[in-house]
Amino acid sequence: MLDLSKPITQKSIFTANRSELLVNHDVIKEKRSYAFDNVVFAYVKNGVKKVYIPTVPEIDLSPDMIIMGTTKIDAKVSLYTASVEQPITCFTLEISKEQVWNILDKINESYQITTLIKEVQTMPEMSLYSGNGNQLVANTLQSLQYLLMQDVEFKDYWIDLKIEELILSCLQTNMRNTLIHSYQKSKINDHPLSYAIHYIKENLYSSINIKTLADKACMSKATFFRQFKHHFGTTPIHFVHSERIKEAQKLLEKTNKSISEIGYGLGYTSPSYFASQFEKLTGNSPSDYRKER
Q1: Neighbouring residues of 241: CB distance < 8 A, sequence distance ≥ 6
Q2: Same domain, yes or no, for 221 and 131?
Q3: What is the pTM of this model?
Q4: Nearest to 46, CA basis, from 87, 2, 4
Protein backbone atom coordinates (compact mmCIF):
# COMPACT_ATOMS: atom_id res chain seq x y z
CA MET A 1 0.00 0.00 0.00
CA LEU A 2 1.31 3.44 -0.92
CA ASP A 3 1.65 6.06 1.78
CA LEU A 4 1.28 9.17 -0.36
CA SER A 5 1.31 11.44 2.67
CA LYS A 6 5.07 11.04 3.09
CA PRO A 7 7.37 13.44 1.20
CA ILE A 8 9.41 10.68 -0.44
CA THR A 9 9.51 9.19 -3.91
CA GLN A 10 7.63 5.92 -4.12
CA LYS A 11 6.89 3.37 -6.80
CA SER A 12 4.44 0.51 -6.55
CA ILE A 13 2.77 -2.15 -8.66
CA PHE A 14 -0.78 -2.88 -7.59
CA THR A 15 -2.24 -6.05 -9.06
CA ALA A 16 -5.99 -6.55 -8.87
CA ASN A 17 -7.99 -9.48 -10.20
CA ARG A 18 -8.25 -7.96 -13.66
CA SER A 19 -5.81 -5.06 -13.65
CA GLU A 20 -2.22 -4.13 -13.06
CA LEU A 21 -1.53 -0.54 -12.07
CA LEU A 22 1.97 0.88 -12.04
CA VAL A 23 2.12 3.91 -9.78
CA ASN A 24 4.87 6.51 -9.44
CA HIS A 25 4.68 9.15 -6.72
CA ASP A 26 7.44 11.79 -6.98
CA VAL A 27 8.09 14.66 -4.62
CA ILE A 28 11.83 15.28 -4.75
CA LYS A 29 13.96 17.61 -6.85
CA GLU A 30 15.64 15.52 -9.51
CA LYS A 31 15.72 14.58 -13.17
CA ARG A 32 14.47 11.17 -14.12
CA SER A 33 13.77 9.12 -17.24
CA TYR A 34 10.67 7.03 -17.80
CA ALA A 35 9.55 4.55 -20.46
CA PHE A 36 5.83 3.84 -20.79
CA ASP A 37 4.15 1.24 -22.99
CA ASN A 38 0.65 1.20 -21.52
CA VAL A 39 -2.10 3.77 -21.11
CA VAL A 40 -0.55 6.32 -18.77
CA PHE A 41 -1.96 9.31 -16.88
CA ALA A 42 0.13 11.97 -15.15
CA TYR A 43 -0.75 15.05 -13.15
CA VAL A 44 0.70 17.16 -10.37
CA LYS A 45 -1.10 18.18 -7.19
CA ASN A 46 1.07 21.23 -6.65
CA GLY A 47 4.02 22.92 -8.37
CA VAL A 48 5.20 22.45 -11.95
CA LYS A 49 6.77 19.36 -13.49
CA LYS A 50 8.76 19.75 -16.73
CA VAL A 51 8.25 16.88 -19.14
CA TYR A 52 10.49 16.26 -22.15
CA ILE A 53 9.26 13.82 -24.80
CA PRO A 54 11.04 13.39 -28.17
CA THR A 55 9.29 15.14 -31.12
CA VAL A 56 6.90 16.92 -28.72
CA PRO A 57 7.28 20.51 -27.44
CA GLU A 58 8.40 20.71 -23.82
CA ILE A 59 5.44 20.40 -21.43
CA ASP A 60 5.09 22.33 -18.17
CA LEU A 61 2.69 20.08 -16.29
CA SER A 62 0.73 22.21 -13.82
CA PRO A 63 -2.14 21.28 -11.44
CA ASP A 64 -4.84 22.15 -13.97
CA MET A 65 -3.38 19.82 -16.62
CA ILE A 66 -3.36 16.10 -17.37
CA ILE A 67 -1.08 14.12 -19.66
CA MET A 68 -2.42 10.93 -21.19
CA GLY A 69 -0.31 8.67 -23.39
CA THR A 70 -1.62 5.57 -25.15
CA THR A 71 1.45 4.28 -27.00
CA LYS A 72 5.10 3.64 -26.24
CA ILE A 73 6.58 6.84 -24.86
CA ASP A 74 10.02 7.74 -23.52
CA ALA A 75 10.04 10.79 -21.26
CA LYS A 76 12.44 12.77 -19.12
CA VAL A 77 11.06 14.81 -16.23
CA SER A 78 12.44 17.50 -13.98
CA LEU A 79 11.01 18.78 -10.71
CA TYR A 80 13.13 21.88 -10.96
CA THR A 81 11.39 24.01 -8.31
CA ALA A 82 10.97 21.34 -5.63
CA SER A 83 12.49 21.67 -2.17
CA VAL A 84 12.19 19.91 1.19
CA GLU A 85 10.06 22.79 2.44
CA GLN A 86 7.87 22.87 -0.68
CA PRO A 87 7.88 19.42 -2.32
CA ILE A 88 6.17 18.94 -5.65
CA THR A 89 3.65 16.11 -5.52
CA CYS A 90 3.30 14.22 -8.80
CA PHE A 91 1.24 11.17 -9.62
CA THR A 92 1.68 8.83 -12.59
CA LEU A 93 -0.62 5.90 -13.25
CA GLU A 94 -0.18 3.19 -15.90
CA ILE A 95 -3.04 0.89 -16.86
CA SER A 96 -2.49 -2.12 -19.12
CA LYS A 97 -3.63 -1.52 -22.69
CA GLU A 98 -5.48 -4.81 -22.70
CA GLN A 99 -7.70 -3.72 -19.84
CA VAL A 100 -8.45 -0.33 -21.42
CA TRP A 101 -9.22 -1.87 -24.82
CA ASN A 102 -11.53 -4.43 -23.12
CA ILE A 103 -13.44 -1.57 -21.51
CA LEU A 104 -13.73 0.21 -24.86
CA ASP A 105 -14.85 -3.06 -26.46
CA LYS A 106 -17.79 -3.21 -24.06
CA ILE A 107 -18.68 0.43 -24.65
CA ASN A 108 -18.36 0.02 -28.41
CA GLU A 109 -20.68 -2.99 -28.44
CA SER A 110 -23.42 -0.94 -26.79
CA TYR A 111 -22.87 2.53 -28.24
CA GLN A 112 -20.80 2.17 -31.43
CA ILE A 113 -18.29 4.84 -30.35
CA THR A 114 -16.33 4.56 -33.58
CA THR A 115 -16.30 2.81 -36.94
CA LEU A 116 -13.26 0.64 -36.46
CA ILE A 117 -12.25 -0.57 -39.89
CA LYS A 118 -14.15 1.53 -42.41
CA GLU A 119 -10.97 2.75 -44.02
CA VAL A 120 -7.27 2.22 -43.52
CA GLN A 121 -5.79 5.24 -41.81
CA THR A 122 -2.22 6.23 -41.07
CA MET A 123 -2.18 6.33 -37.31
CA PRO A 124 0.38 8.44 -35.47
CA GLU A 125 3.27 6.44 -34.02
CA MET A 126 2.73 8.14 -30.69
CA SER A 127 -0.63 9.14 -29.29
CA LEU A 128 -0.37 11.77 -26.58
CA TYR A 129 -2.79 14.22 -24.99
CA SER A 130 -1.56 17.09 -22.87
CA GLY A 131 -3.78 19.93 -21.83
CA ASN A 132 -6.41 21.11 -19.42
CA GLY A 133 -8.08 18.10 -17.89
CA ASN A 134 -11.78 17.85 -17.39
CA GLN A 135 -12.59 17.98 -13.67
CA LEU A 136 -14.37 14.64 -13.90
CA VAL A 137 -11.14 12.96 -15.09
CA ALA A 138 -9.08 14.71 -12.41
CA ASN A 139 -11.55 13.72 -9.70
CA THR A 140 -11.50 10.08 -10.79
CA LEU A 141 -7.70 9.99 -10.86
CA GLN A 142 -7.56 11.47 -7.38
CA SER A 143 -10.19 9.00 -6.22
CA LEU A 144 -8.08 6.13 -7.58
CA GLN A 145 -5.02 7.57 -5.87
CA TYR A 146 -6.88 7.75 -2.57
CA LEU A 147 -8.21 4.20 -2.98
CA LEU A 148 -4.69 2.85 -3.51
CA MET A 149 -3.78 4.24 -0.08
CA GLN A 150 -6.63 2.50 1.72
CA ASP A 151 -6.95 -0.98 3.15
CA VAL A 152 -10.60 -1.57 2.35
CA GLU A 153 -12.81 -4.53 1.59
CA PHE A 154 -13.42 -5.38 -2.10
CA LYS A 155 -10.47 -3.17 -3.07
CA ASP A 156 -9.69 -5.09 -6.28
CA TYR A 157 -13.23 -4.86 -7.56
CA TRP A 158 -13.53 -1.22 -6.54
CA ILE A 159 -10.37 -0.29 -8.43
CA ASP A 160 -11.61 -2.06 -11.56
CA LEU A 161 -14.82 -0.05 -11.38
CA LYS A 162 -12.82 3.16 -10.93
CA ILE A 163 -10.75 2.38 -14.03
CA GLU A 164 -13.96 1.95 -16.05
CA GLU A 165 -15.16 5.28 -14.64
CA LEU A 166 -11.84 6.88 -15.64
CA ILE A 167 -12.13 5.70 -19.25
CA LEU A 168 -15.76 6.83 -19.45
CA SER A 169 -14.69 10.23 -18.09
CA CYS A 170 -11.96 10.53 -20.75
CA LEU A 171 -14.54 9.90 -23.48
CA GLN A 172 -16.33 13.08 -22.35
CA THR A 173 -13.24 15.24 -22.97
CA ASN A 174 -10.66 16.11 -25.63
CA MET A 175 -8.81 12.98 -24.53
CA ARG A 176 -11.44 11.01 -26.44
CA ASN A 177 -9.65 11.29 -29.82
CA THR A 178 -6.30 10.15 -28.45
CA LEU A 179 -7.90 7.19 -26.71
CA ILE A 180 -10.04 6.11 -29.65
CA HIS A 181 -7.26 6.49 -32.23
CA SER A 182 -5.06 4.07 -30.30
CA TYR A 183 -7.99 1.71 -29.74
CA GLN A 184 -8.83 1.85 -33.43
CA LYS A 185 -5.23 1.13 -34.38
CA SER A 186 -5.13 -1.91 -32.09
CA LYS A 187 -8.36 -3.25 -33.53
CA ILE A 188 -7.17 -2.80 -37.12
CA ASN A 189 -3.88 -4.52 -36.34
CA ASP A 190 -5.67 -7.43 -34.66
CA HIS A 191 -8.31 -7.93 -37.35
CA PRO A 192 -7.80 -10.85 -39.78
CA LEU A 193 -8.26 -8.48 -42.72
CA SER A 194 -5.20 -6.53 -41.58
CA TYR A 195 -3.00 -9.38 -42.85
CA ALA A 196 -4.52 -9.01 -46.30
CA ILE A 197 -4.14 -5.23 -46.20
CA HIS A 198 -0.50 -5.57 -45.18
CA TYR A 199 0.10 -8.03 -48.03
CA ILE A 200 -1.45 -5.64 -50.55
CA LYS A 201 0.68 -2.72 -49.40
CA GLU A 202 3.85 -4.83 -49.48
CA ASN A 203 3.13 -6.27 -52.96
CA LEU A 204 1.88 -3.36 -55.06
CA TYR A 205 4.52 -4.15 -57.69
CA SER A 206 3.59 -7.83 -57.88
CA SER A 207 0.62 -9.84 -59.05
CA ILE A 208 -2.14 -9.96 -56.43
CA ASN A 209 -5.10 -12.34 -56.55
CA ILE A 210 -8.14 -12.81 -54.35
CA LYS A 211 -7.25 -16.39 -53.39
CA THR A 212 -3.93 -15.27 -51.91
CA LEU A 213 -5.61 -12.43 -49.99
CA ALA A 214 -8.31 -14.74 -48.67
CA ASP A 215 -5.63 -17.18 -47.49
CA LYS A 216 -3.81 -14.34 -45.68
CA ALA A 217 -7.06 -13.55 -43.82
CA CYS A 218 -7.75 -17.28 -43.21
CA MET A 219 -11.12 -17.04 -44.99
CA SER A 220 -12.78 -18.60 -47.99
CA LYS A 221 -12.87 -16.41 -51.10
CA ALA A 222 -16.60 -15.76 -50.68
CA THR A 223 -16.31 -14.89 -46.98
CA PHE A 224 -13.25 -12.71 -47.60
CA PHE A 225 -15.01 -10.76 -50.36
CA ARG A 226 -18.11 -10.26 -48.20
CA GLN A 227 -16.14 -9.24 -45.09
CA PHE A 228 -13.89 -6.90 -47.05
CA LYS A 229 -16.86 -5.15 -48.68
CA HIS A 230 -18.60 -4.85 -45.29
CA HIS A 231 -15.64 -3.32 -43.47
CA PHE A 232 -14.13 -1.15 -46.20
CA GLY A 233 -17.15 -0.31 -48.32
CA THR A 234 -15.37 -1.42 -51.49
CA THR A 235 -14.20 -4.58 -53.23
CA PRO A 236 -10.71 -6.03 -52.75
CA ILE A 237 -9.85 -5.37 -56.41
CA HIS A 238 -10.94 -1.74 -56.18
CA PHE A 239 -8.87 -1.38 -53.02
CA VAL A 240 -5.80 -2.78 -54.79
CA HIS A 241 -6.33 -0.27 -57.61
CA SER A 242 -6.69 2.61 -55.16
CA GLU A 243 -3.45 1.66 -53.35
CA ARG A 244 -1.57 1.31 -56.64
CA ILE A 245 -2.82 4.66 -57.88
CA LYS A 246 -1.73 6.30 -54.61
CA GLU A 247 1.72 4.84 -55.22
CA ALA A 248 1.60 6.05 -58.83
CA GLN A 249 0.84 9.58 -57.62
CA LYS A 250 3.96 9.54 -55.46
CA LEU A 251 6.06 8.29 -58.38
CA LEU A 252 4.66 10.94 -60.73
CA GLU A 253 5.49 13.64 -58.19
CA LYS A 254 8.91 12.47 -57.05
CA THR A 255 10.52 10.61 -59.97
CA ASN A 256 11.18 11.14 -63.67
CA LYS A 257 9.92 7.69 -64.61
CA SER A 258 7.73 7.63 -67.70
CA ILE A 259 4.00 7.07 -67.32
CA SER A 260 4.28 3.73 -69.13
CA GLU A 261 7.12 2.60 -66.87
CA ILE A 262 5.10 3.47 -63.76
CA GLY A 263 2.02 1.69 -65.05
CA TYR A 264 3.80 -1.50 -66.05
CA GLY A 265 5.78 -1.48 -62.80
CA LEU A 266 2.54 -1.40 -60.79
CA GLY A 267 1.13 -4.40 -62.61
CA TYR A 268 -1.04 -2.76 -65.27
CA THR A 269 -1.06 -4.63 -68.57
CA SER A 270 -1.10 -1.53 -70.76
CA PRO A 271 -0.55 2.24 -70.47
CA SER A 272 -4.16 2.87 -71.51
CA TYR A 273 -5.53 0.60 -68.76
CA PHE A 274 -3.31 2.32 -66.21
CA ALA A 275 -4.43 5.76 -67.43
CA SER A 276 -8.13 4.82 -67.27
CA GLN A 277 -7.83 3.54 -63.70
CA PHE A 278 -5.79 6.60 -62.69
CA GLU A 279 -8.36 9.01 -64.12
CA LYS A 280 -11.26 7.07 -62.60
CA LEU A 281 -9.77 7.43 -59.11
CA THR A 282 -8.18 10.90 -59.28
CA GLY A 283 -10.21 12.78 -61.88
CA ASN A 284 -7.05 13.51 -63.89
CA SER A 285 -4.95 11.68 -66.44
CA PRO A 286 -1.43 10.74 -65.28
CA SER A 287 0.12 13.37 -67.56
CA ASP A 288 -2.21 16.13 -66.33
CA TYR A 289 -1.58 15.12 -62.74
CA ARG A 290 2.18 15.39 -63.25
CA LYS A 291 1.87 18.81 -64.93
CA GLU A 292 -0.18 20.18 -62.05
CA ARG A 293 2.50 19.09 -59.62
Answers
A1: 277, 281
A2: no
A3: 0.61
A4: 87
